Amino acid sequence: MSNCAIVGINWGDEGKGRMVDLITQDYDVVIRYQGGGNAGHTVVNEFGKFALHLLPSGIFRQGVVNILGNGVALDPESLWTEMEDVRAKGVSLTPENLKISDRASLLLPWHRELDGLEEARLKDKKYGSTKQGIAPFYSDKYQKKTIMAGELLHPEHLREHVADLLEWKNLTLQKVYGAEGYTIEQMMDWFADYGEKIKPYICNTTTLLRDAQKAGKKFLFEAQLGSLRDLDYGIYPYTTSSNAIAAYAPVGSGLPSAKIEEIVGVVKAYSTCVGEGPFTCEWFGDEAEELRKAGSEYGAKTGRPRRVGPIDLVATRYGVECQAATNIALTKMDILSYMEKIPVCTHYVLNGEQTDEFPFPVLLGDAKPVIEYVPGWKCDISGVRKWSDLPKAAQDYVLMIEKAIGCHIGYVSVGPERDSIIIR
Ligand code: GDP
Question: For 418, which DSSP code?
Fold first, then answer.
């Protein structure tokens, strides 16, 4: 079997965690390659229900090695909290099954504070940040102004490096935002606490992956957030601050030479979006509330109600292209069972003209959806496990999407549990 990436095709929350949890049984190593603790992957399995934020979704499988790659925003505080939560439910986390890249940069306390300060300054023009510090973190990483996890293994250099950063960061905190700033003692206490906690898990994951590759081990790359939130290809500036697309996986995982033969794109059977930004298919009022309730569309990290609407074939096709997906997992099909007829956004109208192209971000706000309806199936499909047992209308819905997006739909998910899946 080939290396595989599991990625989101839309705005995130498509059910990637659920698919990684299912697919990890065939892989030896699961790697998170970007993003931080700002989103949540929900996984339901024999240990219970989990909202994973930073931990790779392979941690529930025995013998699977889980890696937090150099591309992630490594927040030691939230990682440790998450590790404790997961352990409390009987999952074993050791330096054998969890490894942190020594080249992963650390998300520091001032990143989270700055995120909140900037969103407050923006007022009604805010980006809808989850205020986990991700944007300030990646800005600092690219300015070469943060600490790499591996520096915790070299404490003789740490204090001086922190002091240099502090001098610079306090200028912004105090002079731009009027905040208090940090002292070196505060920061060294923080490192002594959280730094020490994560230290046993830090290692050179590049050599580890290189050796595993030579030994014929198989890798699964796990994305956080979807194509439309990708920094370069998404709905900028309402994107995340890193590259969520599969093309970034070799870079952010620590194995730039990795070849990814299979890219599973996860698409939800309808659209959801958390936070700000243009969302062409958005529903409002009772219709929206009914779908939101049916799909329990509330953020895994923040509890925020998600914006909802019908499936958007224009955005989905674009997302599939950005990811170069080779296979699609269509999730939450069971949620649509209540609908008499199912709305589908087939095209956009922009400046009076119909288009199938996903518009440049600043024009998205002017795009109007063209909605068509297809018949619903109006029965519970959550117990279906075979394609041939799916009602004809549900099969037709899947085939219609497959044709429109130009990619095989190999998985149809009909429930959050590991085995609630139809494999085609
Ligand atoms: P992720 O970030 O892409 O992993 O997605 P989230 O975890 O934020 O959101 C997906 C939600 O849908 C979670 O609560 C999952 O348990 C749930 N889920 C995933 N697939 C299905 C499905 O096929 N049916 C139902 N009913 N729920 C699903």
Answer: T
Total number of domains in the chain: 3
Residues with CB under 6 A from ligand 1: 8, 12-18, 39-42, 44, 300, 331-332, 334-335, 413-416
CA atoms within 13 A on the CB side of 419: 3
Residue 286, C-beta contacts closer than 8 angstroms, at least 6 positions apart: none
Dist. CA 46 → ligand 1 center (Å):
16
Same domain, 311 and 401: yes
Range of the domain at 326: 267-423
Comparing C-alpha atoms, which of 67, 12, 73, 78 is closest to residue 39? 12
Q: Quick check: 297 and 291 in contact, CB under 8 A?
A: yes
Residue 41 is a catalytic residue:
yes
Q: Is residue 50 domain-shared with residue 142, that is, in the same domain? A: no
From 21, 41, 312, 347, active-site residue:
41
Q: Do 84 and 162 share a domain, yes or no?
A: no
Distance CA 223, CA 23 (A): 14
Which residue has the least CA distance to atom 6 on ligand 1?
A: 13
Instruction: Please give the single-letter amino acid code of residue 74.
Output: L
Asked if 13 is an active-site residue, the reply is yes
Distance 8 CA to ligand 1 centre (A): 12
Hunting for tokens 């059977």 — which residue is that? 269
Do 291 and 255 share a structural domain?
no
| CATH number reported for the structural domain that contains residue 77 in this entry | 3.40.440.10
| pLDDT tier for residue 1 given thresholds of 50, 70 and 90 | low
Same domain, 114 and 85: no
pLDDT on residue 362: 95
Residue 413 CA, closest ligand 1 atom number = 23
Per residue in 342-366, pLDDT (tens digit) is 999 999 999 999 999 999 999 999 9
Which residue out of 302, 332, 335, 409 has the highest number of ligand 1 atoms within 8 Å of its CB and is therefore the one to mutate? 332
Q: What CA–CA distance (Å, rounded) separates 354 from 367?
A: 9
Shared-domain flag, residues 239 and 97: yes
Chain CA centroid to CA 164, Å: 33
User: How many angstroms separate the alpha carbon of residue 44 from the centre of ligand 1?
Assistant: 9
Specify whether 13 is located in the same domain as 68.
yes
Q: 171: burial class by Cβ within 10 Å (0-12, 13-18, 19+)? A: exposed
Instruction: Please compute Rg for the chain using Cα positions.
Output: 22
Domain end position, chosen among 264, 285, 302:
264
CA of 270 to the centre of ligand 1 (A): 12
Task: Give 300's pLDDT tier (boundaries 50, 70, 90).
Answer: low
> What is the value of pTM for the model shown?
0.92
Atom of ligand 1 nearest to the CA of 414: 23
